[in-house]
Amino acid sequence: MTTTTVNAPPGRRALWQTKVPLITATFWVIKVLSTTVGETFADFLAVNVGLGPVVTDLAMLAVLAVVLTLQLRRTRYTPWAYWSSVVLVSIVGTQLTDFFTDTLGVSLWVSTAVFAVVLAVVFTVWYRQEHTLAITSVDTPRRERFYWGAILVTFALGTAAGDLATEALSLGFRNGVWIFGALIALTYLARRLGASAVVTFWVAYVLTRPLGASLGDLLTQDTSLGGLGLGASLTSVLFLAVIVVLVAREQRLVNRFGVAEKGSGPLGGRRRDLGWALGGAVGITVLGVVLAGLHPATTASAGGAAGAPVPAGSPAVHPTTGLGDLSRFSAMVSSVQAKMAQDDLVGAKANVKDLEVAWDSAEAGLKPRDPKDWSTLDGQIDDVLTTLRAGSPVQADCAAALSTLSTTLRTFDGG
């Protein structure tokens, strides 16, 4: 185990061991996968479980505080503690960007610029205090605190930059995979040609956030939106399974050989590490394709997550936007209206929950097609949710909100 003697007051010496992993192929694979798991889990709690964004944000902040405290109290690199912290920082970093964008209405251009400046400030202060930004030098308590502060901002910046590219610039998640993958490849090439190891590491660390999100969207989004249709839950389980296997191997190697020497044992080495990393990536690709073939995809006419059929005699579509076929959402709204007409508030709330989940799940595929009209519909769906979930719902208000949403869906339908 590599150790570093830290300068301390006269008569005192503190011996610290490195608290972060070696930068290997396995490191990057786990990093990308943890990004997707973090994001989908937060969405699952906020939407599917119904905690809402505020409760989810507070809960994740609390859990992060506990896990990060455990990480900071460790005396050496412990894979399970380190990667648990990374996943939770990924969640909170994503929520931070979403808070600026969705709650405060800050432009993605502005939030990307702000987080870039904040990251530059963190790096500047860190360098002035420690005279290094190398991950291999994270071997004192103060350096580790700087490190985790920088990690949090990189996730926020990566989220903002990724959303800017795939949503605001309407590039979509498929193009996002190619674009961010190519940028990471160019960063690796620059390192091979002699660029700074520290600079290229942090550039790649920021880029892996939008790459992981784009890969996750590719697997989760419905086939009608250009994805493989696995859904968030199945994708999260798949990614988490690979993370657990790779982290368990990391833990075994560290327990046997230590951090600096873990690559020299019979289970280590660059070739073996690369083999495990490629195995994880290939395994996800193969299983993703196989499961996509077995998983029943939802189509525009299948009623989406709720499985509600498109009502007979529905009005003709008006292809005034690029959002595509919205008939499954119209069908869900019709089912909510039917429940309200029967004074079945419980049933209406259950059906509107299906609408909420389906709409949020389709965001990555729909929003890049026409951000302006998507935002209009998103606001109207929020209005429906607000009126139906009021302490004492007023039927007239619910009916008006549903009618407005139904009309806009039919108008925007470009199926």
Explained architecture:
This protein has 415 residues and is mainly alpha-helical. It folds into two domains: 16-294, no CATH class; 304-412. The chain contains 14 helices and two strands; from the N terminus they run ββαααααααααααααα. 40% of the residues are buried.
Number of domains: 2
In whole angstroms, the N-to-C terminal distance is 61 Å
Order the strands across the largest sheet as they lie in space.
Answer: 1-2
Largest sheet: 2 strands, antiparallel
Number of continuous helical runs? 14
User: What structural category arises from helix and sheet content?
Assistant: mainly alpha
Secondary-structure element string:
EEHHHHHHHHHHHHHH
Salient structural properties:
single chain; about 425 residues; mainly alpha; 2 domains; two-stranded antiparallel sheet; 14 helices; disordered N terminus; transmembrane; membrane; DUF347
How do you describe this structure in short?
This protein has 14 helices and two strands; from the N terminus they run ββαααααααααααααα.
Please describe the topology of this protein.
Layout: E1 3-6, E2 14-17, H1 25-48, H2 52-73, H3 79-103, H4 108-130, H5 141-168, H6 172-192, H7 197-220, H8 232-257, H9 270-294, H10 327-341, H11 345-361, H12 363-366, H13 371-388, H14 395-412
Antiparallel strand pairs: 1-2
Helix pairs in contact: 1-2, 1-3, 1-7, 1-8, 1-9, 2-3, 3-5, 4-5, 5-6, 5-7, 6-7, 7-8, 8-9, 10-11, 10-14, 11-13, 13-14
Keywords: Membrane, Transmembrane, Transmembrane helix
InterPro entries: DUF347 (IPR007136)
Pfam family, one: DUF347
